[in-house]
């Protein structure tokens, strides 16, 4: 909740992991640009600061999506990242978890 103390999991667990991991993801995925859209070779796209994929997580007009975050991908492109964080938390709860972003985080994980 927004009234949580700084030691709260909600406050620091931006995407179900530590705040530093969330910040690194935002940096490596989009360079902190909330308006980033990346086209993938399979025809899907990745949206917003966390580069959330349209194949599974949000609905756009180009990809058949499961829309597991029940939102429009365009909603991920606004400066308000509250919905991006909510969807990222949902993604982390999936069995693949942070693996959804492994390619984005690989440079950070390898120390490059």
UniProtKB/TrEMBL annotation:
One of its GO terms (biological process) is fusion of sperm to egg plasma membrane involved in single fertilization. SUPFAM superfamilies: Lysozyme-like. GO terms for cellular component: acrosomal vesicle; sperm flagellum. Residues 69-87 form the Glycosyl hydrolases family 22 (GH22) domain. Keywords: Disulfide bond. SMART domains: LYZ1. One of its GO terms (molecular function) is lysozyme activity. InterPro entries: Glyco_hydro_22, Glyco_hydro_22_CS, Lysozyme-like_dom_sf. Gene3D superfamilies: 1.10.530.10. PROSITE patterns: GLYCOSYL_HYDROL_F22_1, GLYCOSYL_HYDROL_F22_2. Belongs to the glycosyl hydrolase 22 family. This is Glycosyl hydrolases family 22 (GH22) domain-containing protein. It comes from Varanus komodoensis (Komodo dragon). The lineage of its organism: Eukaryota, Metazoa, Chordata, Craniata, Vertebrata.
């Amino acid at each position: 909740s927004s009234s949580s103390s700084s030691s709260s999991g909600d406050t620091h667990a931006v995407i179900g992991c530590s705040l530093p991991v969330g910040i690194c993801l935002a940096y490596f995925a989009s360079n902190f640009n909330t308006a980033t859209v990346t086209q993938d070779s399979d025809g899907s796209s990745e949206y917003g600061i966390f580069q959330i994929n349209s194949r599974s997580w949000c609905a756009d007009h180009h990809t058949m999506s499961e829309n597991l975050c029940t939102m429009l991908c365009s909603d991920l492109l606004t400066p308000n990242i509250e919905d991006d964080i909510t969807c990222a938390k949902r993604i982390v709860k999936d069995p693949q978890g942070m693996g959804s972003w492994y390619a984005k985080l690989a440079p950070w994980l390898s120390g490059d």
